[in-house]
Design a protein that fits this description.
Elements: E1 2-5, E2 8-11, E3 21-27, E4 33-39, H1 44-57, E5 64-68, E6 74-79, H2 89-95, E7 100-104, H3 113-121, E8 126-133, E9 136-144, H4 150-176, H5 182-200, E10 205-209
Parallel strand pairs: 7-8
Antiparallel strand pairs: 1-2, 3-4, 5-6, 5-7, 8-9, 9-10
Helix pairs in contact: 3-4, 4-5
Length: 210
């Protein structure tokens, strides 16, 4: 499958799933055959194509997205507005259980509750949000380590809102005490929330900011 973005062609059809385990037979130190499970990674060409896509959307004024399955096939590619992307029911169905979802945040912020809800309700294995602040590149990633049921999803979303409320109170105190600037608090508030939220649920999430 070929994806056309900014007049460039991205061939993502032959990508291998970098999250999936595969069987491999090896010879151990005693000369015996042994079956082990190893991770398959995207080859360098596919990685480069994904990086090119990321850089092509990083500083866009509207949100762009791409969703890939376990074989690297493009499931959905869509462009939205400044603050969100609307998907049809058919597109949502296509993305359920996807391995990788990449999009940009024009304001350079981390994940919102809408992102968390999207990840959980559609069992997306990993979502990435890219952007930049003061001309510095920022990549946020959130990996779902295991699927959750409906009750867990709802509890997690309530937990996120509670963390959001507590962190808002904490950040307001820091601003009042002049320990953090209003500008920094505004730009990185979602990141502060995600750090606390993911630590509370470390058995379910792996969160990174680069």
């Amino acid at each position: 499958m070929f994806l056309f973005i900014n007049n460039k062609i991205f061939n993502l059809n032959k990508a291998k799933d970098y999250l999936k385990l595969t069987k491999k037979t090896i010879i151990d130190k005693n000369g015996k055959k042994k079956t082990v499970y190893v991770r398959i990674d995207f080859n360098d060409k596919i990685k480069n194509q994904i990086e090119k896509y990321i850089e092509s959307i990083r500083n866009d004024i509207v949100e762009n997205s791409i969703c890939l399955d376990s074989n690297g096939k493009v499931l959905v590619h869509k462009i939205g507005s400044e603050n969100n992307i609307f998907y049809t029911k058919r597109e949502i169905t296509k993305m359920k259980g996807a391995k990788l979802y990449i999009h940009n945040h024009p304001n350079g912020s981390s994940f919102s509750i809408a992102d968390i809800s999207f990840l959980l309700h559609n069992n997306i294995k990993k979502i990435v949000a890219v952007g930049s602040v003061d001309n510095k590149k920022i990549n946020y990633s959130l990996e779902l380590l295991k699927s959750v049921d409906l009750v867990q999803r709802n509890n997690l979303l309530r937990g996120y809102l509670e963390t959001n409320k507590k962190e808002l109170e904490n950040v307001q105190r820091l601003i009042y005490d002049k320990k953090i600037s209003q500008k920094k608090a505004t730009r990185f508030f979602r990141h502060f929330v995600m750090e606390k939220f993911s630590k509370k649920n470390k058995e379910l999430f792996k969160y990174e900011k680069k």
